[in-house]
Amino acid sequence: MQDKLNIFWFRRDLRLDDNIGFYKALHGKYPVLPIFIFDSEILEELPKDDARVTFIFEELQKMRNTLQEHDSSIAIYHGKPKAVFKQICSEFNVQNVITNHDYEPYAIKRDKEVKEFFSEKNIELYTFKDQVIFERDEIVKSDGDPYVVYTPYMKVWKNTFNADTHLKIYYTNEHLKNLVQHSRLPNLSLSDIGFKKSSIEIPDYDATPTTIQQYKSKRNFPAEDATSHLGPHLRFGTVSIRKMIKKAIAEKNETFWQELIWREFFMQILWHFPETVDTAFRKKYDRVEWRNNKKEFELWKQGKTGYPMVDAGMRQLNQSGYMHNRVRMVVASFLCKHLLIDWRWGEAYFAEKLLDFELASNVGNWQWAAGSGVDAAPYFRIFNPTTQIEKFDKDEKYIKHWISEYDTDTYPDKMVDHKEARERALATYKKAIS
């Protein structure tokens, strides 16, 4: 008879320390077998040199190396989660599976499926809140309805927040002896899962006191490398949200702190309104008659619109997997308003390219740009891509960095006239929502 064990299932929490589910697993009755599943259903949608897959793979190897120093490791699998668990349960005497909550529609469906399988096997599934401070319906109005405007949500979030309770750090190092003693657990190479190493690297995050202190004054200027690059690390859980909030509070930086709250705002919106992945939050905006010109969409994707701020942003995205947040707003507004192309097309392209792609934030921000979402920019707010340069890149450092042919005869002419495109957008939106 095999020895009884518990499984800890790593997902969006690729770190060993300050990981609540992992901490709870290590305090259980049985030794813990850590696992990670490269979900084939997710992977089949991605390009074979996807930088995010390379990043996950490399983080897992680092975690394996650390655990091997404690005579353990992480078992890495590839396939559909339910099929993988069938295999695991045939090889090990599994008592409980422990993991952290995930809130996206696909993850909810996946977890329901594996939970049903576990029930058949008399295995308990325990999940914990780890990637946010407040989740689901923990911050709602007095009548139980969700907040759909950020500012009141943020105020209640802050009033409910208690540093002693919500910023407890869950240290795991001294409990690693409770892992299964097996340092040669199954591993996979990138090629085993059908991928190759990406040429794009996810940069380390920068949450130093200097970056946080200067965040408010410098964050809108794309030529400055003044943002934290925290996005991918929060997305894949290589850092703990508790430690990042702690840093924001230590530096007394409200702007930095509030950006972290925005992330939770969008996550609870997606949880309450999962249909907004595909449909406008404000239903009347689904009546907008998009032009959806494929040729223009291609020019936008390639950064060949003739509007330098838009083109620099798209080229930065295509070459590095990143785009400055200020530029993201300009680029998204241009697609939806100047070109009258459906925000869902832009959202899907960002999902394919962005290293820090997070479904809730991506959908939320694209709907904001289109004027169709929660707390959205009104439809008549249309960014002027030229005056944005004057405000945020007046020396044209950012533009010149990303557009090699800028100021030459080979740089494309403007594909639309700003004034005409603006008037066309206003008329189209007005017709749709009146």
Automatic annotation (TrEMBL):
User: Does Secreted show up as a keyword for this record?
Assistant: no
Q: How is its cofactor bound, per UniProt?
A: Binds 1 FAD per subunit.
Which residues constitute the signal peptide according to the record?
Answer: none
GO molecular function: any one?
A: DNA binding
Its keywords, alphabetically, are: Chromophore, FAD, Flavoprotein, Lyase
Q: Which GO terms describe its biological process?
A: nucleobase-containing compound metabolic process; response to light stimulus; response to stress
Where do the Photolyase/cryptochrome alpha/beta domain residues begin and end?
A: 4-133
The cofactor named in the record is: (6R)-5,10-methylene-5,6,7,8-tetrahydrofolate; FAD
**Sites where the protein binds FAD:** 215, 256, 259-266
The UniProt site entry described as Electron transfer via tryptophanyl radical is assigned to 290, 343, 366
User: What family, per the record?
Assistant: Belongs to the DNA photolyase family.
Write down what this protein is called: Deoxyribodipyrimidine photo-lyase
